[in-house]
Description:
This protein is α+β, with helices and mostly antiparallel strands. It is 38% helix and 21% strand.
Amino acid sequence: MSQKYxxxxxxxxxxxxxxxxxxxxxxxxxxxxxxxxxxxxxxPIFEQTELFIRGMGEATDxxxxxMYTFQDKKGRxxxxxxxxxxxxxxxxIEKNLNAQKPIQKLYYIGPMFRYERPQxxxxxxxxxxxxxxxxxxxxxxxxxxxSLFCTFIRALGLTQMRILLNTLGxxxxxxxxxxxxxxxxxxxLESLCGDCRERFTKNPLRILDCKVESCKALVNQSPVMLxxxxxxxxxxxxxxxxxxxELDIPYEVDPRLVRGLDYYTQTVFEVQVTGLGSQNAxxxxxxxxxLVEELGGASTPALGFGSGIERLALTLANHQIDIPSxxxxxxxxxxxxDEAIQQAIPLAKKLRDHGIPVELDYRFGSFKSQLKYADKLxxxxxxxxxxxxxxxxxxxxxNMESGEQKELPxxxxxxxxxxxxx
Length: 422
């Protein structure tokens, strides 16, 4: 018996009609991001491993547990990208994008890879949509980014969303906050999980993102960053909240929201919708003012967000959002007999050359079987060409929705349909 191959665990084949949903999400993203002045960037699927270790933090779960890392034939350590920001910043530095424009607005759409437990809307290979705004520290940019994400989600048809907001301060106020966390968790080490005991020594802020129930109970009583903000960080956060209110963008301050990566500073946010159970977050992000410098560039403020297409598609399905077709309904050519087939093939080419989609059933079976196939393909119109039509020099145009039929001169059919579809 021959070997039967299946897709690796945590991956999936995206088949029609689901692929149409993915295309709709990606197209909606591109249209929305263009409204805010963002341009697309494409970076390699794999990068030097050190880029992600330095970028995301060696104590993060992504780096310690979830990266797909391998050596190439020369022994260099490479990693399939687990997220998009580090690669974008690497490109920004390498290509001196700051010399082209003082503020770069970039977006990406592409596959990411994380070795984690597969679940609804979360796969080991997933497609991420992300935006990065590089070169401004103004709180107005934070608000624009959140507004962009909300505009995108509404354009998909989702209206009920919950925005969680927090600030993680900066290098001026974070040291005192870390001291407070060390004091607090140091008195409760025996109640922390094994991973969090290790996080305690490397970066105690990572404990705040733990999903273990015993750790979550401790986190709920831990000190919060809001009590340690400098006047400057407080003013930044206050401005963000004030502008969100002026734009009628509702939010909730979650003082323990930290996101999952070490590079965040100042504003962080997460967007949630109903319909995904406990995994109800559909994206989020924040400011990362130290990352460009950390990866070898000049000190440059930046911010961004990411969202997974798989989770968005699942949310759209759970909310029963109607997905508009991105393609026109095809015309279906239904020839009966060899002579009709010889006439149909060049007619199909003429129509396609003018952007009109055309389908044929190359089995060329009976009238009934071909008409049934046209219905299965979702054809809007069928062009029927049989022996009687050939003798009369006509072709029959049948509306599949109404059943109405009309005859067109065969010699003028292509011209008529091309004009009709302009």
